[in-house]
Amino acid sequence: MLKNYPALKHILGRAGWYFVTFLVAVTINFFLPRLGDANPVNAMMAKASAGLDSASAKEKEEQYLKEFGLVQVDDQGKVEHDAQGRPVRTSLASQFFKYVGMSLRGDLGGSILQHPKRVSEIIKTALPWTLTLQLPTIIFGWFIGNILGALAAYKRGAFDKLMYPLALLASAIPAFCFGILLKYVLSIRLEWFPAAGGYDDGMMQELSRAFVASASYYYILPFFSVFLIVVGGQAIGMRSMCIYELGTDYVKYAKLLGVKENKILYYMFRNAMLPQLTGLALALGTMVGGALITEIIFSYPGLGMAILTAIEGNDYPLITGCTLLITICVLAANFSVDILVGFLDPRIRAAQQTGK
Amino acid sequence: MKLFKNLLKSPSFVLGMVLFLGTLLVALFGPLVMHVDTANRVGLAYAAPSADHWLGTDHLGIDMVSRLVRGLRSSLYVGFLAGTVATVVGTLIGLYGGYKGGLIDDLLTVGTNLFLVIPSLIVLILLSSSIENGRSLTLIALIIGCTTWTWSARAVRAQSSSLRGRDHVALARINGYGTLGIVLLHIMPYLLSYIFMVFILQTATGILSEASISMLGLGPYDSISLGNILNDAIKNEALTDGAWWAFMPAVVLITVIVFALYIINTSLEGVFNPRLRK
Predict the structure, then answer these.
(1) I want to staple B267 with a disulfide (CB 3.0 to 4.6 A). Which of A224, B2, B13, B75 is the partner?
(2) B258 and B204 Cβ atoms separated by less than 8 Å
(3) By CB neighbour count within 10 A (0-12 exposed, 13-18 middle, 19+ buried), where does B190 fall?
(4) pLDDT tens for residues B224-252?
């Protein structure tokens, strides 16, 4: 039946693959933090046991163990004990299946540092900040970088001589180094921009005009510290792709035929763009990582800051919650790029049409 | 030899080499030539640069130049170790999968692609945060190497599978070479220049990853690295205090090393791949 809808088949195939990747990501998120010597309950107990006698400390520990699903619980919701009176630990496997089930339902557990709060609540307030910072930077950066790169390859001369070293430098500066530079020069020294945060102190997060104005003002520096680097990297890639395309037989042939220059440029751009789009999918993970560190430099209230505070406070559920969510975002972005490539690449389209 | 002459003609290669060897020399011989002391306070917190202490002091009053020399050593060490691990792992997986083909290749490719889309920084955060005690510099370098090999495996696989149909590979097989022998003696030599470029980029990635993970507070506990210096400076308000000497030199050093490695790589590409030359 699916044979009649090759595009749908392609999308479903990719979706299946990304679902498997998602499961692997959840597995990594579960097992990696449990590999080492760090234990969330110990971390919580270190904080909570101060001033408690041993009996109530034990009770507290059991309560935490129960909360994290680390012990067997009977029908009445009481912790089960073995013959020695120690709580019975659940096996790693049953913990894992519980974790997967909870993650699929969107429940990421409770935060340790901000105790009664759920991790999903904290992430819900941080995620919009990260998305508004990262999506436009990467998308606009990709477009502008590609246009500049193609122009440099085609025009050569002075434009290329000026742009190439600048783009090379921009692509080689780590996002966080550039962020520190911008913050120090433009906001601390010259005081043109605010140095830290996402909006003015004392403002409520709402969709009022004053809040949006304040947030946009705080947005400028973090935006540019990632944006320019994306532009540089993409321009370098596009430039060498276009130089390669310019030397190919079809371009030479088209020139000999006397095809209009704009038309050749258009063909060349289309051919060079596809590898760039695939390259974007591969580079997304790195870009997102770089932008997370940039958030920390500007104390931007997104997921990067959430991870930093979680790491400083040994808040394991929050760390794994943030990492899982970032992974999901990167997977979703990759999936969209994959689908887009499927529609743009004539080779994949042809394979779809012949039903291969 | 001719290759080397060609390289020396490329200004970006010369610039990259000068910058990189410069930092390497400072890292190797700095502690021999000058007095490096990162244990004792020599002045007030964030004391400004002076004749005795060229780059002032940090938030504890420790000489910045000493810290930078130590940090440079650690960062280059992490870069080389992580780069070596990532290159060896990636190259072996790529060479083997590309040569073998079939089911093994498919499995290796799926595995590589899986870890290619899951951001390596995320795996790095998860692994490092699980190790509370004993997060040493060497361990961090090994972890970085084990999380960043994916794209080199993918790149090498593509090259290796294009070589598997060559006649000399078939001859080696007829002569009774095993898989490992063919891969290492008859395929790898053709890709050496390529693998060397992969190593340069992996080293740069290693240095950057260490800095990123240190900025998150997950850096090595046993040594000063450039990432640790930046983390200390940001945590202790060096930026708002205007103590540029506490972070600017580290920012410049990281940028210079990474920039040098990148332009060395691009100029090597230009020499090894004649199609890119004009």
Answers:
(1) B13
(2) yes
(3) middle
(4) 888 889 888 888 887 787 788 888 889 99
Q: Which DSSP string corresponds to A266-335? A: HHHHHHHHHHHHHHHHHHHHHHHHHHHHHHHHTT-TTHHHHHHHHHHTT-HHHHHHHHHHHHHHHHHHHH
Calculate helix-pair angle for B64-100, B11-33, nearest 10 degrees. 130
Contact between B256 and B23 (Cβ < 8 Å): yes
The identity of residue B6, as a single letter, is N
* Ranges assigned E (strand) in B147-271: none
Tell me the C-alpha distance between B189 and B110, whole Å.
Answer: 26
Phi-psi region of A351 (alpha: psi -120 to 50; beta: other; left: phi over 0): alpha
Q: CA B217, B219, B225 angle in degrees (round to 5)?
A: 120
Distance, CA of A285 to CA of A326 (rounded, Å): 9
- Look at A323 and B126 and tell me if their CB atoms are within 8 Å: yes
* 8 A C-beta contact, residue A74 and residue A80: yes
* pLDDT tens digits along A180-228: 888 888 887 787 877 777 777 766 666 677 777 777 777 888 888 888 8
Using the 8-state DSSP alphabet, how is residue A110 labeled? Answer: B
Closest-CA residue of chain B to A18: B114
B274 lies within 8 A of chain A by CB: no
This prediction has a pTM of 0.85
* ipTM of predicted assembly, 2 dp: 0.83
Please give, rounded to a whole number of angstroms, the shortest distance from the CA of A1 to a CA of chain B: 27
How many other C-beta atoms lie within 10 A of the C-beta of residue A73? 15
Between CA B259 and CA A182 the distance in angstroms is 18
Nearest CB to B118; choose among A21, A240, A312 = A21
Residue type at B24 in one-letter notation = L
**Mean pLDDT (whole number) for A149-173:** 82
Tell which residue, B254, B264, B259, B255, has the closest CA to residue B72.
B254
Name which of A157, A236, A222, A154 is nearest A193 in CA terms.
Answer: A222
b/e code A82-115 from CB counts within 10 Å (16+ = b): eeeeebeebeeeebbeebeeebeeeebbbbbbbe
- The residue with tokens 């691990």 is B85
Q: How far is B119 from chain A (nearest CA, A)?
A: 4
Cβ distance A168 to B212 less than 8 Å, yes or no, reads no
In whole angstroms, what is the distance from residue A194 CA to residue A197 CA? 8
Rounded to whole angstroms, the Cα distance separating B189 from B176 reads: 19
| Strand ranges (E), B50-93 | none
Instruction: Determine, for residues A168 and B126 on separate chains, whether the beta-carbon distance falls below 8 Å.
Output: no
Look at A32 and B212 and tell me if their CB atoms are within 8 Å.
no
Q: Under DSSP, is residue A3 helix (H, G, I), strand (E, B) or coil?
A: helix
